[in-house]
Amino acid sequence: MFPYVVAGVALLLFFYNPLQEYFSAGPRPYAYSPRPAINESLLAVDAPNEGAPSCPADSYSIHILSKAPLVIYIENFLSTAERELLLDVSGPLFEPSTITNNGAETHRDATIRDSEVALLPRSGGTGDTVRCVERRALAFQGWRDDLWLERLRTQRYGPAQHYAHHFDWGSGAALGWGRVSSFMVWVDAAQDLEGGGTDFPYLRRRGLAKEWCRWVECAATSSGGSTEEEAKAKAGARNGEGEEGEDMGLVFKPAPGNAVFWENFRPDGTGRGWEETWHAGLPVRKGFKVGLNIWSWGRLDYQMA
């Protein structure tokens, strides 16, 4: 009997740490998996014989808003000439926006997403400009391996149009692939625009300097029509209060030429998205705005501890 007891204790000691890690470490990292089947017609992929466009030197500047998740504000991401060209090419291409629940089939639901969208051509007279914007977005992310841009789309919003709160990252990232990052770029906005800000109600921030008020709502009223105190109360009711000294949520103003970049997934190898990237295009109350969506699809980052 005694040898069996000794053997049992030895087995328990041998497997104790692995078992403890298995049951207490939380979500486990995904395995390194091959690229799933994708529809490459939806990606901005150059033809094999297609030469590189002649692109102007980048002249933007960046400001880090958050490190976890990574959120970066970009000044002058688009030049005036680029914005004018994108507006010209988008005009005849706009059609009602749609949504998808499974990543494949689409349908229109104006209660969730009410706007017009234009899929930008990558060839012809405007193709080089579109491809230069694509290359700028890829370079911004360090020319990462296993990363592709989705085809660029402009979005136009008029009075009462909006995009309800949502995540860009969706689901299905268990195998380590998904929409890893997003750019929200503003192409145009009416001078008398009211409303239409991009709202991140769960984004935690610690005492923004007054300089940020050029790009985020700091006035007594927000784009959503609530006072600042009401907006904070709503955020607290949804999320609970932040840590001491933290404010919850902010609204970016539509600033033509500028952009916001954020990463959608946690770099822990679990495929979990950042809850703080829950965002919305708030209703336009007066005027119009035109935005540009740049989404990156590829392998999720996995930083080893």
Automatic annotation (TrEMBL):
The keyword Transmembrane does not apply. GO terms for cellular component: endoplasmic reticulum. It comes from the Eukaryota. Residues 225-245 are annotated as: Disordered. Its cofactor is L-ascorbate. Residues 1-21 form the signal peptide. Keywords: Dioxygenase, Iron, Metal-binding, Oxidoreductase, Signal. The keyword rRNA processing does not apply. Residues 69-297 form the Prolyl 4-hydroxylase alpha subunit domain. One of its GO terms (molecular function) is L-ascorbic acid binding. This is 2OG-Fe(II)oxygenase family Oxidoreductase. It comes from Apiospora kogelbergensis.
